[in-house]
Amino acid sequence: MKKALVLLASAVAMSGAFAQASAPAAAPSVAAASAPAAPAAKGGHERNVEDRIAYLHSQLKITPAQEPQWKAFADVMRGNGQTMGELFKERRAATNVSALDDMKQYATIAQAHADGMKKLVDAFDPLYNSFSPEQKKLADTTFRHEGGPEGRHGRHGKGKSGKTAPAPASDATVKP
Q1: Is 88 left (phi over 0), alpha (psi -120 to 50) or beta?
Q2: Handedness of CA 90, 98, 2, 173 (dihedral sign)
Q3: 7, 2, 20: which is closest to 164 by C-alpha?
Q4: What φ, ψ does residue 59 adopt, rounded to 5°?
Q5: Which one-letter DSSP state was computed for residue 31?
Q6: Residue 64 CB burial class (10 angstroms; 0-12, 13-18, ≥19)
Q7: Computed from CA positions of residues 115, 152, 52, 167, in that sequence, does the dihedral angle turn out positive or negative?
Q8: Contact (CB, 8 A) for 86 and 62
Q9: Residue 149, class by beta-carbon neighbours within 10 Å (0-12 exposed, 13-18 middle, 19+ buried)?
């Protein structure tokens, strides 16, 4: 049971809003094409989400014809990041909570993560189906090695070596 909670906590903590390591930066023209104009002073998690969106746009070689499906997918990533950011902010702000309240907060975060992933899958389906065989191969490799669309360690905390990664040392760490 404890292992399952640790794995779930790792998956939640590594969601797109709180990816500890930013994805490699994409070319500015790609970032501009994939993200709406935004204030320069975005917060850390918002910047990570936008960096991840720009990276995936470049990595998957999104074509102009795929932009409508891409926009829907990117908007879900942004929405998921915003939701998770708000939930983690509430969790950090809560002080002197009982063990029961702490578990309830954790359950809320875990459920929001599951709901967000369902939305992300639903948005990715038409995009993936529009991909060329080359793009599908790129997507399969990218998500397999980097843990999915929202972060680098989404495979239950396992990196490229297959070994379990240490829990992140940040405010995003979730404890049951």
Answers
A1: alpha
A2: positive
A3: 7
A4: -60, -40
A5: H
A6: exposed
A7: positive
A8: no
A9: buried
CB 109 within 8 A of CB 12: yes
Which of 158, 163, 171 has its CA nearest to residue 10? 158
Domains of the chain: which residue ranges?
2-146
**If DSSP codes are grouped into helix, strand and coil, which group holds residue 140?**
helix
- Give 164's contacts (C-beta < 8 A, 6+ positions apart): 156, 157, 158
Q: How many CA atoms, within 13 angstroms, populate the side-chain half-sphere of residue 77?
A: 30
For 113-148, the pLDDT digits (tens) are 999 999 999 999 999 999 999 999 999 999 987 655
The pTM score is 0.61
For the stretch 9-51, pLDDT in tens is 444 444 443 333 333 333 333 333 333 434 334 566 778 899 9
